[in-house]
Amino acid sequence: MKSLRSLTTLNRRRLLQVLGAGAATGLWREALPDARAAEPEIPRRLVFFYTQQGTLRDLWAPTGTETDFALGELHKDSLEAHQQKLLFLDGLDMRSNDVDPTQPANAHYGGTTHSLTGVNRKSGTLPSRYSIDQFIASEINKGTPLTKVPSLELAVRDVSFGEWALSFGETGAPMPFETDPGAAYDRVFGGFVPPDDGAAQARAAQDEAVLGWAAGEFDAMTPKLGKEDRSKLAAHAAALRDLQARLNLAPTVACSPPTREGEDSYAGDWGDSSAYPVIADMHMRLAAASLACDLTRVVTIALPELPSELVGYTPGALGASDLHDLVHKTAENGQLKDDADAVLPIKRYHQLHSKQFATLLALLDGVPESDGGSLLDHTLVLWCGQLGSGSHDLGQLPWILAGGGGGFVTPGRHVKYARPNNQGPSHNDLFVSLANYMGLPITSFGNAEVSKGPLTRLSV
Amino acid sequence: MPQPHALSRLKGLGLGIALGASACTASIDGPDSLPTSAPGGGRSGASGLDPNAPLDPNTGIPIACDQSQVLAAPAPILRLTNREYRNTLADLFPGIDFDVAPLATDNKDNGFDTTGSAQSISASLIEGYHGQASRVASAVVANLAAFSTCAAMTPPPSSCGAELVSTFAARAYRRPATTEELSRLTALFSSSEASWGFTKAVEVTIRAVLQSPAFLYRVELGRPAADQPDTTPLTGPELASRLSYLLWDSMPDATLMDAAGRGSLDTTDGVVTEARRLLAHPRARAAVATFQSQWLRFEKMDNLKKSAAAFPAFAPSTAQALADSAARYVDYLFWERGTLAGFFTDTKAFVNRELAPIYGVSAPASSELSLVDVNPSQRAGLLTQAGLLAGFAHETADAPVLRGVLVLSRLLCDTPPPPPPGTPAAPEAKPGDAPMTTRQRLEVTHVKPECNGCHASIDGIGYAFSNYDAIGAWRDSDNGLPVNAAGVLTNTLDLDGTFDGTVALGAKLAQSVQVKACVTEQWYRYALGVGEEQLNTCALKSTIEHFNASGNKLPELLVALVSSEAFRRRSVITQ
């Protein structure tokens, strides 16, 4: 039985404001003497920020040169402050969907089964393998877990099933997402026991006994089953042992949890449109705090179905039956693409997400790291989604990579990828690069037919 | 940890962005190359028969199914669904109060969360079980007397540990523990007692058992016999669990476990007796309600959003009332109305002040739902249930394709293939165009040769719903033009032909053997936790015949199902 490592006394404590100006979040943290010597001193983190409805192509792309550019209308009032930490990836295609022989059950499944997986579907509604976030989280935590929580999946509206599922486990099963900010908080910071606590030692021993015994029961039962069922129980046993190891992890950062600010109650109904931005904010705060306290390295935040009230649109107005319909009609081939009144709510839609993206970047940028930089400098945040534009086109993905990635990328650029025969690099290439970034030396991800190596031009 | 108030509602929020009514325009070779299914759906699942084999007009399943066929289905190991887990915890610890936090969402297959192959493990799920086990164990320790009389004594007698372990294991595992299992659990208890004392040992033991495979999974090894090479009968306790999880969504009660232990469940009569007892209990209503809501895709009503311009009176309370009305109605259809035909011909509805205008009846005084008669020329059972019609519609317009697919898939078991890649949405009306009904707008593209192969059968059913708008209210005109609700059924076992409107469609479905076989199949898939391709459709034969003989009475369908060989046996385990 491992004992909890005792902390050495530290000289300085720095109070950090995770929430930004004026908020008394009360999160403090101090890096501990190196817990894992093999790792770089400041770990690398990865965040996926996933929105819907594609983009308005004309308003997305910056103008100017690669290094000296002005932000497009969708971003200019929100991302200006972070411009030097942005890398616009202009021209990636979701080629894996083009070569997938299995038809999607509908057009939405086409994008969502490929956007983060880059792999063939196994049915009309499910991919056959991992999404990149789950692959990376699983690989970096394999054998010896790296962090208490292998990855965090947070959503403002549930994307654990159906046509909006975007994150998938090893066999292509949709990952569960947490929509309840209080529950998400508890998962990361719950059971947080001050280290010099005798009762905690006993508790740890009991956890060990319980989990070890349960895993043993799975080992005993598995051989009795038919071969199809054995892998199911074996996966469960592995997850139990993984939990055991994670509970035994000594923290690398001495952290006190951020204060709960409204996670457990809301004046209105959590399902109301007005609750949407509140939940989104809570998820982003939690993501930043979790990364800052090194309780996870991979976070996926899903912001689906932004309510039409938030963009000032009434369903049935402006020649469309609902917001989704309006997105299609204002896309590059849509009949309303030149109708400024019709385009306005869609513009607001993407601008609202851009403000949320800016909030997330500010939260990450507000956490100082020991090298004088910020948490954002050691993170890559990918703003992604399942559509190329407001039509069901899956090409020219409007994806933006933010952060420094510890020097892995050269940010502050608008990279326009060459598109010979109107075909750009495969988005699988980006996933190979992200895996390499997180320490996994793969050369292909997802469907090897469209994945031959990392994405070029991420750094100069 | 307290339940997060209304946030628990977020877990089930269907993301109601409606499917565009899609046209089949695509670059494919024409109607000959489109996939077609055999008449009547022609599935054979895992029966080993040709999917195009001719069907028996009395049962709707292949004629070639004979009694010597291996009839049992595979029995994939099934983890308790979150609902079953919650109910089981309540039944395992009577008299002890604890909260149950929501667990990671169950994966579904074709709408059913009981399907074994859809289940997956996540770190979040395992942490959820771990946390819940601790919560329950702490609650037990605070109320030891409710859990074990000897444990609450001061001091507990020396025999208490062994007694408590053996009793608890048998109840938690839903069968007596094996010698080896008991020895391992006793060792855990003893070492915990030595380290931390008796009470803590009870707590540790409960935490451990609640995370063990015998508790979390329904393991069905059966009782293999050398003289039965094709199928294996389930043991009494295994059958008791199957009965109980199907009919009560929870672990077997003491009476059922007792029957299992005495060997009563080895006989058909014994199974039938227990099945009827369980069905007579109020808990069966909740269990049947779960199946019906998954079968009929009630999740479509979770996030009903309608255009305020088109439907100014439609409020969140209307959406809630529609969902409640639908749930109560299918409950009434199953238990009170009681026949499969009644599902498609009944002329009542659950209505309150808000729903009355939608159904075109005079408004009751209150917001409480009450069962009233509705217009028989406009309403006929399930198909005209306003909530369902509203769920399978868009924010402003009705959705013939969605409604057609619902009937084909959930009532005829003949799911159409998805639209080809690159299929764009149907063209919308442009300002200055002459007005068109939904039907006219869709027909422009759907009648093209490359679309018609699929859409003939989908739209042939879907257009019959044209009299119901996006909130399920009756209309005689659509966009100022008279509604055309003429429909046609093709490629069915016993339904081919034209008809006009949904009431007429209902009359046809009420008499159909294909529908009967499909409903039986849906129940089997749900009960056995198997997907469409794994179900041996031949196994349905005895159930359908029994159902026929009962006059198609619905609770009797379940009695027939659980007394069938397919339910009482499993396929042989292959190592």
Principal-axis shape of chain A equals: globular
Distance between the termini of chain A: 48 Å
**Class of secondary structure makeup of chain A:** alpha/beta
How much of the polypeptide of chain B forms β-strand, as a percent range? 5-15%
Taking the sheet with the most strands of chain B, its summary is: 2 strands, antiparallel
**Continuous helix count of chain A:** 11
SSE order of chain A = EEEHEEEHHHEHHHEHEHHEEEH
Q: Which of globular, elongated, flat, extended, rod-shaped describes the shape of chain B?
A: globular
Number of strands of chain B: 10
Task: Please report which band the strand proportion of chain A falls in: under 5%, 5-15%, 15-25%, 25-35%, 35-45% or over 45%.
Answer: 5-15%
How far apart, in Å, are the first and last alpha carbons of chain B? 43 Å
Average pLDDT across residues of chain A? 87
Mean pLDDT of chain B: 88
What Rg of chain A, in angstroms, do the CA atoms define? 22 Å
Low-confidence stretches of chain B: 1-36
Going by helix content, strand content and strand pairing, the class of chain B is mainly alpha
Give the % helix of chain B. 40-55%
Largest interface pair: A-B, 83 and 89 residues
Low-confidence segments of chain A: 1-28, 33-38
Description:
The complex is a heterodimer of chains A (460) and B (575). By secondary structure, chain A is an alpha/beta fold. Chain A has helices at 57-60, 95-98, 107-112, 132-140, 181-189, 198-221, 227-247, 275-292, 323-329, 340-365, 427-437; strands at residues 15-16, 27-31, 45-51, 63-64, 69-70, 86-92, 152-155, 253-255, 298-303, 379-385, 397-402, 413-416. Chain A has eleven helices and twelve strands. The N and C termini of chain A lie far apart (48 Å). By secondary structure, chain B is mostly helical. Chain B has 24 helices and ten strands. In chain B, strand 6 (477-478) and strand 7 form a beta hairpin. The two termini of chain B are 43 Å apart. The interface between A and B is large, with 83 and 89 residues.
